[in-house]
Amino acid sequence: HEIPDPASIDIVGLTGTKLGCAEGGCGACTVMISRFNPHKNRIVHHAVNACLAPVCSLHHSAVTTVEGIGSVATQVHPVQERIAKTHGSQCGFCTPGIVMSMYALLRNRPQPSKLDIEEAFQGNLCRCTGYRPILEGYKTFAVDGGCCGRKGKENDCCMNREGGSVSQLYDPSQFKPLDPTQEIIFPPELSVSKQENKKLQFKGERVVWIQPSCLTELLDLKAKYPEAKLVVGNTEVGIEMKFKNMLYPVILAPTVIPELTVVQHTRNGILFGAACTLTQLEEVLRSSIDDLLPYQTEVLHAILEQLRWFAGRQIRNVAAIGGNIMTASPISDLNPVFMAAGCKLTVISKGGKRVLQMDDQFFPRYRKTALKPDEILLSIEIPYTRKGQYFSAFKQSLRREDDIAIVTCGMNVIFEEETNTVSHLQLSYGGMAPTTILAKETCKMLIGRKWNENLLEEACSLLSKEMTLDPSAPGGSVTYRRTLTISLFFKFFLTVQHKLAGDLKEQVMRVLNQMLLSQAVPLGQNEEDVVGRPIMHLSALKQATGEAVYCDDIPHYKNELFLVLVTSTTAHGQILSIDSEEAMSSPGVVTFLTAKDIPGSNQTGPAVYDETVLADGMVTCVGHIVGAIVADTQAHAQRAAKSVKISYKELKPIITIQEAIECKSFYQPVRSIKKGNLEEGFKEADLILEGEIHIGGQEHFYLETNCSLAVPRGEDGEMELFVSTQSATKTQQLVAKVLGVPANRIVCRVKRMGGGFGGKECRSTLLSTVVALAAHKLKTPVRCMLDRDEDMLVTGGRHPFLGRYKVGFMKTGKVISLEVTYYCNTGNSMDLSLSILERALFHMENCYNIPHIHGTGYMCRTNLPSNTAFRGFGGPQGMMVAESWICDVAMACGIPAEEVRKLNLYEEGDLTPFNQRLEQFTIGRCWEECLALAKYHYRRTQIEQFNRQHRWKKRGISVIPTKFGISFTAIFLNQAGALVHIYTDGSVLLTHGGTEMGQGLHTKMVQVASRALGIPGSKIHITETSTNTVPNTSPTAASVSSDLNGMAVYNACQTLIQRLEPYRTKNPQGTWEDWVTAAYLDRVNLSANGFYKTPDLGYDFETNQGRPFNYFSYGAACSEVEIDCLTGDHKVTLNMLKLISHNSINQTFPIFSPKGAFMQGVGLFTLEELRYSPQGILLSRGPGMYKIPAFGDIPTDFKVSLLRDAPNEKAIFSSKAVGEPPLFLAASVFYAIKDAITAARAESGLNGPFRLDSPASAERIRVACEDRFIKMCPPPEAGTFRPWAVQV
Which of 1220, 1243, 1259, 1277 is catalytic? Predict the structure, then answer.
């Protein structure tokens, strides 16, 4: 069979399944594969990643996508309905994948447990919701939880509780019931159990895929093609071909060969065929444990523990045991377990079989095994354990769920009969060498020793000497990894010592407490008045069915071409030559764009034109766009782009903030805010301390990467752009600039975005300008959607900050004087960095009244991709530094941190450092109510008791306030327009200047118009945002879009109401349609523009006078954590958010938007870390290396409470912005971690302030605990080696 591409499932033209990462790490592309399983004699259903599932592998399979289970046009499935109606779909790009994960679970288990539901989503990511509403909605399917809909729980029904979330936000009793008998029928022609296996062969342009029908055939093929890859799940080969530019001309798929899929129970263990999937391995081990004696199951339990955290469910469903072994990854989760257990491997070739022991000889070098080229792995035998044998496996990773290991290990000890004397010991580690290794010398020295403290001490000493790493080792974290080898052995020692009592094991089941709400619709409000009601996101059902159209879902035009960027591979250099000859001769290539093709200006940028559309003679970062290949297919364009050869004269780059400070590499101006007399303040102070904190950057990780489609209109230079952008007007302006045409020839249209978070405020123009240029040159439509690794490489992210401070304070903890300096890593262009730095300065004191204060900010010019807007826009970095020095002050004074914070809080009427008076200042109420709701003082007592009783687990708690200014600090952006049409049938078409990216802006604008016009929201429709309906729009950003656009919509509606008033007066009993018809017949204009600008804004840095913000949003959060002092792991056991939301336009968004923002903040402050090489190369370019919070990272107890009776006169219908302010409240998790570390350090006699940079990763937590194990692995001396990654 001839096929376009053997490794592509995207040839059927369905758009519901989304592409989020192309490496099986986000779950957006999840579909369900159904097959008849002859071993089970039934049909099995599995969720899989479409991005890794080759079409060739689907023979005899049924594929179900999100479109196949329900539709808005016909009937939605209960799985689709519940995620929509429980507000679990915001931007919606991840929704189809989540729906299909849940659907696949229900097809296998119609009555799942809550744990089943949580585990089903281990391979899915969401960036908007914070996961909670998704789990709350799907918990209604659980047999052991969920809402009964008032159908059975009389006394303790959640719908009867005061403030119960379910009663206010959705009514489960209205949900469609799940009826398993009505599901899609498996095609009968695929269910024939006696189908003969036939050899299949598929031929692509560069790859031949062969599925042999029997073992003999496979061995013949392997002898003929010894370099051929055997592929079952394609979870490794697919990624190698996509991202590592590997090519395997012949691929063999052994999935139907019985000998490779067999499972046999032998006398000594269980034998698995090498093609058995990890899910099958898991199922067999679980069922076997029930039939075996407990002492026989040690290895089986250890494998299950590793499988629990092995990738996501979609990967485990297809990945094979043999593939995991033969990949020979040095950080494999399972190979250390197999090696420590001494598993037996049977390999076979045409020449015969042989059995290999899985030991340290099996992996001779990096990614190599002991197999000969013509041999294949036939099976693995996993042994039972015997009496007196103990086995454990451990894995440490950045994120608990779906993450690659930092260090992983299998540990096996056998004691002499009825003694504690070691007769056999195997310690196997991954992540400590180019291969999986055994600690042979350590094990050898411990044989014959008694299992006691003396053995422990010697083992730790031996491991510290044997488990060494080169300081420049790939992956970095050398000290941490070395320490983990000791810490994990210590855990094993304790586990064995306590006879596997599980003292250090985590609880599998997590109770997810419901959230607390505190907003109700005012009594007497008209039923048709939808303002303040929990209206479902208008697109939620379409998003859940896959019918919502995103940019790349737009049907392809005739003769449409595809564009792929060609980017710089050096951080700083002169371009000497560009050789595109090979690329131009590649199949399907049409042209290669360079700066010479630009008809207008090559200068671009959102605020200052200091960037180029295409590099011209010089590159200033890795990822600098040099050119673009345009071809007939995306695959052809990608292949050709990799063959463009660029030579450079390399120049010395500046990568880090420290390097920029040393070289005085700064953009101008330097900003400063000063109030009071700093020197006098320091003289008054009892104590003075100095410190600093580094706050790492953050990748936006919107699920939909940047996408643009440019369609030339054929006359007068007109062009239509479909772009995933937060700034339609800026896109229009910069495209017009590069093409050399007036802006009125360019129309930019935005239907919706799959997330933005600031990343598409201006960096989206990097792509749209190049795509428009290609369409202009070729006079044909051109499309480009960036792959995840490209998007992360070129678009920048949140600015890393370095904060240095000197603080003077009294012994009571009262802060008198503060001098703080901010350095932000701006990158290779200004972008929006000046405004970001200014906002950091505006928030440098957070909520604390400091009489004498001086803040200075520097923008560091570096050779990194330009950093840009991100939710919070510099505010979180500014406040994070403030909380660092307030924490240091508390430690220096020996006073609880919450008392120091409360002592320094602002009060009503106080002036900020920029001399804006605080009005309606309710932070005091937020603070006290947060403490009360969290039972803070009771928890503090319990924590102190816990910490006294536990040496290697510590708990901490922290409460943090926030004050966030609402307005664009660039005054001219605080304006908005709207256009409202009333048609003669009474329907209303609404357009405004904001864009929809999941925050529900369109939904809220419909609610505003509904109240203003006095009609049901069902009569109002918003199609899109476009520059030809509302011109000169401000970006959808700064948490002000509802305020600005809501007022503009209201203004337009008021104009129309005034025009309709005479007809309402003349016919008071008439209907809306009657009044509209009468006005039309009387030739009244039924279209109106609306406009709004925020009044009384303006600030001057020179005079430190003015009013930069319209108002402030306030809040407080309390978080409790528990850390593992041996590994650095932490879990959040409590989050309580107290927010001022006033009268929300839509009741759902002040609850779920803060949760999404908070979880994004949890990522920023505890998990997400951009890793750059010293040469400026981004090493973390996808979900494999860059970890955002997953379903399993949400707090066990997560509540949001809204402050009552706090009206806001400054915004539409007394609402208040909640999009950005809650993000910083996640700093409460960071400082709770720091509180726990403080307790751990006290065990080692360490007291007083200490530095903890953000994010508080497992590595930083572990190193900060500073115990005897850390001292065994001292860090290499700085300057004596080149690190793998640097702190930028």
Answer: 1220
